[in-house]
Amino acid sequence: MTRWLIDQTVNRVTRRHGVPKDLDKVSVIGDEAGSPEQADALWERVQAIYRTGMHPGIQVCIRYQGDVVVNRAIGHAQGVQPGHRFDPDQAVPMDLDTPINLFSAAKAVTGMVMHKLEEMGVLSLEDRVSDYVPDFAHHGKGDITLEQVLSHRAGIPTLPKEAFDLENLTDPDWMEDMVCELEPSGVVGGSPAYHAVVGGFIMEVVAQHASGRSLREVLEEEIRRPLGLDWLHYGVELEDADLVAHNVETGFPLILPLEMVFRRALGTRYGHVLHLSNDPRFLGAVIPSGNVITTAHDIAAFYQCLLNGGELDGTRVFEEETVTRALEHRDEGTPVDRMLGMPIRYSAGFMLDNEQVSPYGWDHPNAFGHIGLSNMFTWADPDRDLAVALLTTGKPVLGTHVLALPQLITEIHQVFPEREGVRT
After folding, report:
1. Burial class of residue 197, CB neighbours in 10 A (0-12, 13-18, 19+)
2. Three-state DSSP state, 62
3. What average pLDDT does the structure give for the chain?
4. What is the DSSP string of 165-216?
């Protein structure tokens, strides 16, 4: 009894979800090629993350040399609450085809949609936003380019709090008025300051003006459907909202300085964003920096397409030059992001790796990808011929996962070494 009380107290303080004793009963293994021993070694690390109680549901897909070598899921997509005993009657299993919101990892998809529009001759990323949306020039924003927005150098990183009013998200006129009235809070074209949500809204407005199509339509018609992916959408149809995995706030409550950082970046409280993200109105909207709905399998296939220079299984959706341009970093060194307070290299759409420590491991100078709130990892490393997708439903900032997560990244680094001769 005493042990049970201690466990329950710890679970509530850390906002930890209950973990079933038999993990095999809450695990799914899909078709995999490659070494079973390597896959199982990586899976043990994923199970260790799950045991921390920070992530009710996890999907992981790893592609190596073009083959899917890990394709697994564990836990539950819905019905599991931190600080409460696990109730199997309320829990909905996480499956391989359960759709999950990428949050900020969506920015990589949006970046490639915009590069696709440039490839098609619809627009140029070197053009000013105001060339397509004249009223965007208000408040001194006339010279901001599309590329500056995509690389977080537009000087407008924050959103007004009303931007997350769910009644506004599906109103394109309101959205256009909102982005046109944004006021710069930093130097345009200066050091990067992470644009958590605003950049995607700007890209949506530009796409509508330049192409007459929503980013949702372009992604569907030019990328998802040709590649034959089941899930890679901006939001979902309302009848599919119940299929999407729920996001759950886990971990220690945020201390005030961290809460202020998120409030500044998101325009509202961290927990409030997570609550909204499960609402059908949020899921039905187009939020290009924050609601691409997909699976680990399908987003790993998207990155495999980029590793292949724009084609997957014989279907080309990007020219090689388009992929190369999307990965260009135009600054010397690794600048410190003024919003996040950490060194990050950006291209027009991606977080790039470097020769030091990064979210993707260490010494991966050519890796590219994007992370999302809060433990969503999607990346590819051409030096290893590797694509990785780790999707999670728990949203801790500080929690009991802080050792298990980097141990998985390290294991991936060790299991898939750099190919010989790639850096000579």
Report:
1. buried
2. strand
3. 92
4. -TTTTT-HHHHHHHHHT----S-TTSS----SSHHHHHHHHHHHHHHSS-HH
Q: Are strands 336-337 and 232-234 parallel, antiparallel or unpaired?
A: unpaired
Q: What pLDDT does residue 353 have?
A: 86
CA distance 289 to 291: 7
Residue labelled with tokens 């950006």 = 346
Token look-up 């490639």 returns: 112
Residue 379 has pLDDT above 60, yes or no: yes
- By the 10 Å C-beta count (0-12 exposed, 13-18 middle, 19+ buried), 243 is classed as middle
Residue 49 CA, chain-centre distance (Å), reads 19
Q: Phi, psi (5° rounding) for residue 345?
A: -100, 125
Taking the C-alpha atoms of residue 307 and residue 156, their distance in angstroms, rounded to an integer, is 31
User: In the beta sheet, which residues pair with residue 368?
Assistant: 352, 380
> How many residues are present in the chain?
424
- Neighbouring CB atoms inside 10 A of 380's CB total 29
Q: Torsions phi, psi of 27, nearest 5? A: -120, 150
| 3-state class (DSSP) for residue 359 | coil
Question: Can you spell out the DSSP letters for 369-403?
Answer: EEEETTTEEEEEETTTTEEEEEEESB--SSSTTTT
Report helix, strand and coil shares of the chain as percent, to nearest 5: 40, 15, 45
3-state SS, residue 94: coil
Contact 393, 77 (CB under 8 A): yes
Q: Return d(Cα 385, Cα 387) in angstroms, integer.
A: 7
**Bridge partner list, 78:** 92
Task: Tell me which H or E stretch contains 336.
Answer: strand 336-337
**Cα–Cα nearest to 381, from 398, 400, 359:** 359
Between CA 385 and CA 224 the distance in angstroms is 22
pTM above 0.90, yes or no: yes
Whether omega for the bond prior to residue 211 falls within 30 degrees of 0, making it cis, is: no
The Cα–Cα gap between 418 and 415 comes to: 10
Nearest to 104 by CA among 345, 317, 375: 375
Higher per-residue pLDDT: 159 or 309 = 309
pLDDT at 359 over 90: no
Compute the distance between CA of residue 40 and CA of residue 325 in angstroms, rounded to an integer.
37
Residue 106: which H helix or E strand, with range? helix 106-119
Angle at 276 between CA 78 and CA 376, to 5 degrees: 65
